[in-house]
Design goal:
The complex is a heterodimer of chains A (408) and B (231).
Chain A lengths: L2 H14 L1 H39 L3 E6 L17 E2 H10 L3 E16 L2 E10 L2 H5 L4 E4 L4 H5 L4 E4 L1 H8 L8 E4 L2 E9 L14 E5 H7 L8 E2 L1 E6 L5 H15 L10 E5 H44 L1 H10 L3 H38 L7 H27 L3 H6 L2
Parallel strand pairs in A: 4-9, 6-8
Antiparallel strand pairs in A: 1-11, 1-12, 2-10, 3-4, 3-7, 3-11, 5-8, 6-9, 7-8
Chain B lengths: L2 E14 L2 E14 L3 E6 L5 H8 L7 E6 L2 E2 L5 H11 E4 L11 H12 L3 H14 L15 H13 L5 E5 L7 H16 L3 E5 L3 H4 L4 E6 L2 E7 L5
Parallel strand pairs in B: 3-8, 3-9, 6-7, 7-8
Antiparallel strand pairs in B: 1-2, 1-4, 4-5, 9-10
The chains are: A alpha+beta (408), B alpha/beta (231).
Bound molecules: adenosine-5'-diphosphate (ADP) and magnesium ion.
Chain lengths: 408, 231
Amino acid sequence: MDFLQTIKIALRALRTNKMRSFLTMLGIIIGIAAVIAMMAVGSGASYVISQQIASIGSNIVLIIPGSTTSGGLRTGSGGAQTLSSDDARAIMNDCPSVAYAAGTVRTSGQIVNGNMNWSTVIMGGTPELFEIREWPVVSGRPISQQDEDGAVKVCLLGQTVAESLFGSSDPVGSIVRIKKIPFTVIGILERKGQSPQGQDQDDAVFVPLRTAQRNLVRSQRTGIVSAIIVKAKSEDVIAKAESEIQALLNQRHRITNSKEPDFSTRNLSEILAVAEQSSKAMSLLLGAVASISLIVGGIGIMNIMLVSVTERTREIGIRMAIGAKKNDILLQFMTEAVLLTMLGGVIGIALGAGGAAAVSRMLDWPTLISFQSIAVAFIFSAVVGIFFGFYPAKKAAGLNPIDALRYE
Amino acid sequence: MTSVISLSDIRRVFTMGDQQFEALKGVSFDVAIGEFVAIMGASGSGKSTSMNILGCLDRPTSGTYLLDGLDVGGMTPNQLADIRNKKLGFVFQGFNLLARTPAVENVELPLVYAGLHSKERRQKALLAMEQVGLAGKENNHPSQLSGGQQQRVAIARALVNNPAVILADEPTGNLDSSTSAEIMNLFTALNQQGITIIMVTHEQDVAAYAGRQITFRDGKIISDHLTGQAA
Ligand SMILES: Nc1ncnc2c1ncn2[C@@H]1O[C@H](COP(=O)(O)OP(=O)(O)O)[C@@H](O)[C@H]1O
Ligand SMILES: [Mg+2]
C-alpha cells in the first residue's frame, strides 16, 4: 500500500470529524506554541546578555575603592579615595596576566554646544580604557598618550551626546564646554547600546584622565582615580590576574592581616556568566512546563484514537476482509495520529512564533526563533504522535476480522 | 472437472468458556471452476461459519481446505490476507461499504492493498463499475445510492481483482424482491462470463438462480444437487 494513499485515507478520517480533530490537536498546539515561545524569549534573553557582555568588553576585572571582603558593599566605598593613577600604572607594568589597566574618574555635568546643552556622564580615562572596553571611534581620532600626558582639553563624544548636541552635523573639530571649560571634540565613539544595568552607555563624554583630574573632579590628593579597569590577557587568566592585582595592591597600600584592604576587585564577566546561567535555567524550566502540556496533549490524542478505533471497528473489518494486513491497519492509524500531532505542531509553531513576535513588540524584548527550535518542536510533535498513537493502532491491527465485520 | 475449492471433513468447534460447540461437523464438498453454488439451510445451521472458512477469515478446527490447489491451512495471517485480496471477492448482506468514500474508491480498495498505482486502480475500478451497470455513479457516496446500487458497488469491489471465487453471504438479505432479482440477474450474468460464485441464502427463489444447491442442517450437509437450471 503506497504512502500517499495512507495519508489520503488518514486525512479523510480527520476531516470526517473536523471539530474533534481540532480539539484533539489543541493540547499539542498549546504545548508546541509554548515551547516555541519560551525558547524564543529565552534565547532572546541569552542574546541580550551576551550582547551586554560584549559591550563591556571581555576578560574585565574592575577595581574600586573600599572593601567588600566582609559581607557586601561598605557604605561610602565608592567615595573613598584610595586608588591612584600610579596604582593603575603599576598593575599594568607588574602584573604578568594583565594586558591593560586604565585609571578612570567619573563625574556628571552639563555639556554645552552653542545654545544646546545636555547633562551627561563625564568619564576621564587613559587611552588604554578604549582598548579594554573594545570601543573604537567611528570618526575623528581616539585619545592619545600625548593628550593624556599633556592633560590636553580634548574629548570624545558618545553617540547619544553627539546626536543631542549636534543633530546630524559632524561634531569633530568643534569646541564644546564641559562644566564651562572649553574642550575640542576629537572623535565620536561607536554605538554601544545598553549596559547590563540598563543604562545608555552612549550617553557619556570621555576626556583624558589627567585632564579630568585637573579640571573636572575635586580630590584630596592629585592622581586619585575612582576606579581602575583591567583587561586580563585571556579568559583563562582572569582569576590569576585578579589575585596578582590583589597581591600588588596589598603591598602598595601596606595591607597586612590586621588591616582590611581599602579596595576590592570584581570580575564582571563572571557576574554576567551567572546571569546567563540563570536565564538558561529559567528557559529550561519553562521548557519543561511546556513539555508537560505536550504529554497531556499526547494522552488526549491517545484517548481519541482509541475512541476512533472502536467507532471504526467495522471499517477495519472490511479492510481486513478485502486484504489489508495487520501492518496496513497499524500504519493507517499511526499515520492518523502522527498527522494529527504534526498538524498541531505546525499550527503551534506558527502560533508560538506569533506570540514571540507579539512579546517582542509589546515588551520591546528581543526574541530569537532558531531553526533548531522549530526542528525540535516539529520532531517532538511527531514523536508524541508515534508514542501515543502506537497503542490504539496496535489495538486496531489486532482485531479479528470476523468479529470486526459483525460489530454494530 | 478442475476444483477451485476442495473441502474435506471440515470441522469447526467454538469454545466459550468451558463449553464447546461444534458448528461444522465434517463438511466436504468441491466446487469446480465456473460453478454457481447456493448454500441453503436454516438459521444457525453453519452457513456463515463455512463461508468464513471459505473466505479465509476463519480457520477450521480440523480438515483440509484447498483453494485453487493451495492448502490454506498452514498459511500465516499475512499470507491469508494476500489470498483474500487476490483470490477471493466478498459480498456481504449489509454491503459493508466505507461511508463518506466515493463509490469508485470503495471499488478500488482491494487494489490499494494489492499495491497497484492510482492510475491502474482507477482504470480497473471504472471497468468493474461498468460491468455491474454503475457507470456514471463513480463519485456518489454510499449514502447517495439505493440499496441495490450499493450492493452493485460491493459486487464491483469483489470483482475488481479478478478473483478465483466470489463469496456472497445473503447478498439479497437487505433488498426488496425486485432489487433482489436485479442482483441475481447480475450474478447470473457474471457466472456466464465464467466467474465462480458461492452464495448463501435461505430464500428458495434466490437459490433457484444457482446451478447447484447445497443444504446444511446442524453443521452437516444434508443435500447437494444440481438444479439443472444454470450451466
Ligand atoms: N464465534 C462464535 N462463537 C460461538 N458460537 C458461534 C460463533 N459463530 C457461530 N457460532 C454458532 O455456530 C452456529 C452456526 O452459526 P452460523 O454459521 O452463523 O449460522 P448460519 O447458518 O445462520 O449462518 C450457531 O449456532 C452459532 O451460534
Ligand atoms: Mg449466517
